[in-house]
Amino acid sequence: MSTNLRIAAVLIALAVAALVAAPAVLSPGLINAAIQMLIAALFASAFSLLCGQAGMLSFGHSAYFGLGAFATIHAMNAFNGAGLLPTPLLPVVGGFIGLVSGIAAGWFATKRTGVYFSMITLALAELLHALAPHLKEVFGGEAGISAMRMPAWGISFGSNVDVYYLTLAWVLVSLVLLYLYTLTPVGRLTLGLRENTHRLRFLGYDIHKLGVLVFSVSAMFSGVAGGLQAMNIEAANYVVLDMQLSASVVLNSYIGGVKVFLGPAIGAAIMSFFGYAVSDLTRSWLLYQGVLFVLVMMYLPDGLVGELMRALRAGRLRFGWAKLGAGLVFVAALAVSIVGFVCAVELAQRFFSADYRSMIVGATWPPVALFGRDWAPFSPFTWGVPLGLMAVGLGFLAMAARRLDPERGGAA
């Protein structure tokens, strides 16, 4: 085993140990956030099998996530946590429905490649999203369907800690299965779909059947993630079929690094926690998420984990004393740039908000309250400080990036 593999194995073991011990130190709110992070990680990993490894960008994966969620909710009501499907095994239903729907949708979608494939997946998902509110027997109308987790195997599943460990077990097993899939001959052929379909066809492989297989496996694990989501919140609504969920899994996967196995999972976990931590603080958190995605695509096109792995392989992370100073400057400049950008966005958001406009009396513009301080809306100081911080921070950031990586000049 090479040194890099040993390091990766140790890091994964430490991460699993930390996940197992997490409920002992986390508050109930953070445990709920951790459950969402785990589900998002599994969904992104399932998506990356299709997008990252097979090179087929789907814009409609929320359909299989949502179908898995609704199937699991129906199973919860039908079996009441007993019989052939006790509560811990209910996500199997979500995975089965995801597999069946993936075979059906994949048969049509994989008839085409590239942008046409993406448009077909988007159209199928939007069709399902539009029909769902009208199929009340299946999707419960606009109110959705609810259910209750029932005790099984001596576990009540009444607390979020029980749900956390159930989710963790399913996510770890699913990730192991997805990784083992990549080691199989079919997994190797999946990479061939991304790299050169003409050569696969020349060698005698049925490209369409192989594409349907990869699509259905990806949809199956997406259905498992949807089932875990349904069990977590004990309800499912047609909103889970919305385009926004499909967009989120695309963004999260690319931020983490869609061509690295654990990249999408780590990216999804990071962005889920980012949304949990920031959404209560500001209305502009989606803007920050979008800006982060743009910056990652511009400067780290392989994603956060992908870029880290590439730097490790190239030996670019072997810091000496000469680069230590540049690294510290880089971190400080990045922090200053973020502070300036956040101040500018929050000032603008408050200045253009309807609440602020309602306080204007005649020609008197009230100060804008931000960070415990009142800012004069038309003072050069108010807008000059954040813009100046951004300019200074970006300047030092570019200088430090050139010193850290002269070949790339800080950009891809």
Automatic annotation (TrEMBL):
> What is the native source organism of this protein?
Xanthobacter dioxanivorans
Annotated Gene Ontology MF terms? branched-chain amino acid transmembrane transporter activity
UniProt keyword Transmembrane helix present: yes
Superkingdom, natural source:
Bacteria
UniProt keyword Zinc, yes or no: no
Which keywords has UniProt assigned to this entry? Cell membrane, Membrane, Transmembrane, Transmembrane helix
Cell location: Cell membrane
- Residues crossing the lipid bilayer are 33-51, 63-83, 89-108, 115-132, 163-186, 207-229, 261-279, 285-305, 326-348, 381-401
The UniProt entry lists membrane topology as:
Multi-pass membrane protein
The protein depicted here goes by the name Branched-chain amino acid ABC transporter permease
**What's an example GO cellular component term for this entry?**
plasma membrane
Identify the Pfam families for this entry.
BPD_transp_2
Report the InterPro entries cross-referenced here: ABC_transp_permease (IPR001851), LivM-like (IPR043428)
